[in-house]
Design goal:
By secondary structure, this protein is mostly beta strands. It contains no helices and 11 strands. Helix content is about 0%, strand content about 60%. Strands 2, 4, 5, 6, 9, 10 and 11 form a 7-stranded mixed sheet that branches. It is globular.
Length: about 120
């Protein structure tokens, strides 16, 4: 089992920055993919960014150049640095964990990000 706890969300003005953290615990494998997804009001959950254990990253087009995903394997933590925030970035951000050994995915409870104009 894997447990994920997010933190770092809050209220910020447009053009501001936030850094989200996701701490993982439990049965952590080196072969895993962690990522961030978000869900805006009335919208479906969408991919924001992912990162493999080797550091390979993938970003949604809407956040490229503004967001950076990183991880600290020693701390079992993944981060999302969000710069140049826009009101459209508003939503609940969820941490995600996937392992090649199982089709099961793990999700955190989410942390809310609100970007005001």
């Amino acid at each position: 089992q894997v447990q994920l706890v997010e933190s770092g969300g809050g209220l910020v003005q447009a053009a501001g920055s936030l850094r989200l953290s996701c701490a993982a615990s439990g049965s952590i494998s080196s072969d895993n993919v962690m990522g961030w997804y978000r869900q805006a009001p009335t919208q479906q959950r969408e991919l924001v960014a992912t990162i493999t254990g080797s550091g390979n990253t993938n970003y949604a087009d809407s956040v490229k150049g503004r967001f950076t995903i990183s991880r600290d394997n020693a701390k079992n933590t993944v981060y999302l640095q969000m710069n140049s925030l826009k009101p459209d970035d508003t939503g609940v951000y969820y941490c995600n964990f996937r392992s090649p050994w199982s089709p099961r995915q793990y999700w955190g409870q989410g942390t809310r990000v609100t970007v005001s104009s």
